[in-house]
DNA sequence: TAAAAAAATTTAGTTAAGTCAAAAAATGTT
DNA sequence: AACATTTTTTGACTTAACTAAATTTTTTTA
């Protein structure tokens, strides 16, 4: 742990005051009106909107609440590179020692939160129970899957979807007699530290 | 705009110190190591992790960067209700005066950012150019779509995907001879006061 | 198992920036 | 042009963001 590189050069906070202003105007509010709702002074709000001041997280939460959005909306996002994948060309990966296979649909966009996978679930496969931060949305394309979610259990067929917060313990299993396929999309950060094995296409 | 209810209930800032701690431990870092990387003192980091102190946005950005995640990861999220949709039961909606139809796959989870739609694109349909905050990911299920993205144009067939930031001006059109179908997923926030259908990218 | 080392927490501060109220300036309305 | 409304600026206050160092706790070592 020598020569630790500071993560940042004491940059400005990653807050876009312009987004607050745009939202306020879209809602047809004056500075005074919004400041009243958010419980801050009108002068400070003016400064925040013009990036001449930075609110604390608590104050930012109040602004978000008054404007009916979540805090993330105000966070400035860096520029990103787009990504396209081709159905005929995507490689399949497998978690180490697992028959589960998946294709990566999304890419790592700076500051992005979306991760999406095409998951191929063999007949009889059953996952372990897991939970983590972020949202998850499953779109079933083929087959039949039993999804547990907390104390609930859902049978999902092609066309069905399930949208839930990932911190609820959840698992899934292919209970049909054909391989199942789903599009899994999540907003948990990319913390996938598990080993991946590259498979040839079948 | 009278009797403005102050949003300030003297709440704690919406920060989950535990998430920072979990992430640090998962990365195998000591308090000292992470504080060095983030450029803050070890004592303060300890307090932040135990919710006994709140970092400024700038400091939070440094922590996020040092841990390789985005700020959103640390924001505490309220409890949510999960949602399931059935392929055979979902209603189709249309934008006013448009032949474009869509089904809602996701639900509104408090503090959530994920929105997902099944979009049915008639032959010959062409959308207007649009841009907005948030990420977008398209998974093509059927048909052929021409997607413009900034200066780029992509032909997307069944199985192809495209992942991009929504602030790049973009549009799409069905250029095939059969109806097209895509799963659209986005992280743009749900703006209060705006028609929900705005999210269908028109 | 005791001692040493490492890691985490607590404490007692400093200080700068978050935030204010009021004045001034800019903008909108009639 | 006069007035009202909205926004910005200004000069302050104060408190919490953040520190270094001491203390405690936990882990490692022999």
Keywords, separated by commas or semicolons:
202 residues, 11 strands, DNA-binding, disordered C terminus, alpha+beta, homodimer, 7-stranded antiparallel beta sheet, 3-stranded antiparallel beta sheet, elongated
Strand content of chain A: 25-35%
Kindly report the greatest chain-chain contact and the residue count on each side: A-B, 90 and 89 residues
DSSP helical segment count of chain A: 4
Rough outline of chain A:
elongated
- What does the main sheet of chain A amount to? 7 strands, antiparallel
Uncertain parts of chain A? 1-11, 190-202
| β-strand number of chain A | 11
Q: Kindly, what is the distance between the CA atoms of the first and last residues of chain A, rounded to a whole number of angstroms?
A: 45 Å
Rounded Rg of chain A: 22 Å
Structural class of chain A: alpha+beta
Please render the helix and strand layout as text.
2 copies of one chain form a homodimer.
Chain A: H1 17-26, H2 31-38, H3 42-49, H4 57-67, E1 83-85, E2 92-95, E3 101-104, E4 115-121, E5 135-142, E6 144-149, E7 152-157, E8 161-165, E9 170-174, E10 180-186, E11 196-199
Antiparallel strand pairs in A: 2-3, 2-11, 3-4, 4-10, 5-8, 5-10, 6-7, 6-9
Helix pairs in contact in A: 2-3, 2-4
Chain A binds a DNA duplex (30 and 30 nucleotides) through α3.
């Amino acid at each position: 742990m020598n020569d630790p590189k500071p993560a940042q050069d004491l940059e400005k906070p990653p807050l876009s005051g312009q987004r607050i202003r745009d939202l306020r105007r879209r809602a047809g509010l004056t500075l005074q009106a919004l400041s009243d709702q958010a419980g801050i002074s009108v002068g400070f709000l003016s400064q925040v909107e013009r990036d001449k001041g930075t609110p604390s997280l608590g104050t930012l939460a109040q602004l978000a609440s008054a404007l009916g959005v979540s805090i993330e909306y105000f966070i400035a996002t860096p520029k990103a590179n787009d990504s396209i994948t081709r159905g005929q060309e995507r490689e399949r990966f497998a978690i180490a020692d697992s028959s589960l296979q998946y294709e990566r649909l999304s890419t790592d966009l700076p500051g992005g939160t979306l991760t999406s996978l095409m998951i191929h679930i063999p007949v009889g496969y059953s996952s372990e129970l897991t939970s983590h931060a972020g949202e998850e949305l499953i779109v079933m394309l083929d087959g039949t899957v039993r999804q547990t979610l907390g104390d609930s259990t859902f049978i999902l067929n092609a066309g069905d979807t399930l949208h839930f917060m990932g911190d609820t313990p959840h698992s899934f299993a292919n209970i049909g007699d054909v391989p199942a396929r789903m599009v899994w999309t999540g907003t948990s950060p990319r913390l996938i530290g598990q080993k991946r094995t590259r498979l040839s296409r079948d």
